[in-house]
Amino acid sequence: MAHPFFLTVAYAGGAFHGWQIQTSLRSGQGDVWKALRTFDPEAPMPQGTGRTDAGVHARAQGVLIQTARDWEPYRLLAALNAHLPEDIRVMQAQPAPEGFFPRQHAVAKRYVYRLGLGPAEDPLMAAFRWHVHQAAPLDLGAMAEAALPLLGPHDFSSFRCAECVAKTPIRTVHAIRLVPSEGGVDLVFEGSSFLMHQVRIMTGTLVEVGKGKRRPGNMAALLEARDRAQAGPTAPPEGLCLEKVWYEARWAIGEPSPWGERE
Question: Looking at 31, 53, 122, 186, which residue is catalytic?
Answer without folding.
Answer: 53
